[in-house]
């Protein structure tokens, strides 16, 4: 039987402290029947709530692994967004017949390492002689070098070659394009001198994200000779490499948390 507004007002008037509802979990107050939650006055919360946010893969795995419901009727899901390298787990999600409140959540947002950021910054960038030398001085400890013949080059000699590279102007009608050369007009070809001492491919050895494996990423080097020597770097098969990195990310979470259900995608409660 439902109570009329007048009956509720009578009850409110007879209980100056308010009318208890929800088994004493709340009070109805005033003539406007505002609901007051009494949880803050109890010794404990009714249920656990909170948001855990981290950029550490191990921290996320440890937190979720220690707190998911081992007695749940169904596996607790983890939603993995491989494109953004994110993962999220609602630890009190429940399941369809008995849904939870989804207010205890753990979130992982995995950032690129400084080395991987540097690789991305260098990709598709053009450097003059000083710029390419500075790049190699800063990040050369991650790099190995090969010339157009596939021969290995020493870092120190590569840096020196970039410092001393010069341009010779030759008059010729030659349509052939070579490594570290480009055509200018019809009668003039500008060629980088001593090109064999310069790398055609730079290989970076780095960890793209903390907690994932090291890998090799190749970068093609080409020469531009307009207005003086300059060098353009281009990552090779970067999309395929990033797809492999995303798969490793998802597989690692699944391997470390085998008792949970890992799903590719996002979820909004």
Strand order of the largest sheet: 10-18-17-16-11-12
Main β sheet profile: 6 strands, antiparallel
Radius of gyration, in Å, reads: 32 Å
Query: How do the helices and strands follow one another from N- to C-terminus?
Result: HEEEEHEEEEEHEHEEHEEEEEEHE
Distance between the termini: 33 Å
**What number is the mean pLDDT?**
82
Low-confidence sequence ranges:
169-177, 184-188
Helicity level, as a percent range?
25-40%
Q: How many β-strands, per DSSP?
A: 19
Overall structural domain count: 3
Which class best fits the helix and strand makeup? alpha+beta
Total helical elements: 6
How much of the sequence is in beta strands?
A: 25-35%
What is the structure about, briefly put?
The protein has helices at residues 5-14, 57-67, 114-122, 129-139, 155-164, 238-256, and strands at residues 19-21, 26-29, 34-37, 50-54, 77-81, 86-90, 94-95, 98-99, 104-109, 126-128, 143-146, 152-153, 167-171, 181-184, 188-192, 201-206, 215-224, 230-235, 261-264. By secondary structure, it is an alpha+beta fold.
